[in-house]
Amino acid sequence: PCREQPIFSTRAHVFQIDPATKRNWIPASKHALTVSYFYDATRSVYRIISVGGTKAIINSTITPNMTFTKTSQKFGQWADSRANTVYGLGFASEQHLSQFAEKFQEVKEAARVAREKCQDKTELTNPALSLPSHQVLPSPILSSNGPGEDKLFRSQSADVEISTEKERLKKMLSEGSVSEVQWEAEFFSLQDNNSRLAAALHEANASLEQWKRELAASREETETLRQRVRD
Asked: Rounded distance, CA 15 to CA 89, Å?
């Protein structure tokens, strides 16, 4: 049986924040990719995964304090402190964005419940174990240059928990080993081939079409002027 089960899938243009400037968006691919929520039954964690070819573009483990923020009608983002990045998604419609945001909230709540159950089991098996308090990273102010208007947003940082060796091992595994990513790529490709979702259109296409129309009008005007000069 498959260890990870897809919960929800959609298509979107994937972006990552520029690690150098922390201000600009870097496209992860030229085309829209399938982005899915997965549940890892073995480790009781939820993840967002997107694969381009054989490369895992997104492999983000969802924690209870993560927040998905809508920065425009068709663009949203979330911060992943484990991956030390901010992911951005550009959708074909506002409806697709809303569906993804609603699912993010559902999965985040499920992750909270799963974490509490895990902590309860840990306390039962290790009554003398004391867990450290949550460490919250500072929230830098970033500027989004993704689809839609240019806006300021505050990234929501996720807490970093370091307790027992078992927890540290779980963290390493959740970030994905090479073999795990390869397995995900193969599995996800099969899921993607069966997907009936239409390819999303990037908002930049509208700008490109507008540019083409303006160029055609400019050429027509130039040709008219040439005709007048000849006459």
From this structure: 6
CATH of the domain at 182: 2.30.29.30
Instruction: Answer yes or no: do 150 and 206 share one domain.
Output: no
Contact (Cβ atoms closer than 8 angstroms) between residue 73 and residue 97:
yes
Domain assignment of residue 226, given as a range: 202-231
What is each CA distance from 37 to 23, 48, 72, 142, 189, in whole angstroms? 27, 5, 22, 26, 14
pTM score of the predicted model: 0.52
pLDDT digit string (tens) for the chain, length 231 residues: 445 678 999 999 999 999 998 889 999 988 999 999 999 888 889 999 999 888 899 999 999 999 999 999 999 999 998 889 999 999 999 999 999 999 999 999 999 988 887 766 655 554 443 333 333 333 333 334 444 433 333 333 333 333 344 454 445 445 444 344 444 444 444 444 444 444 445 566 777 888 889 999 989 989 999 888 887
Instruction: Give the residue from 133, 165, 137, 13 showing the smallest Cα distance to 79.
Output: 137
Q: Cα angle vertex 187, ends 189, 34, to 5°?
A: 45
The answer on 175 and 225 residing in a single domain is: no
Number of domains observed in the structure of the chain:
2
- For the record, the structure tokens of 186 come out as 């193969």
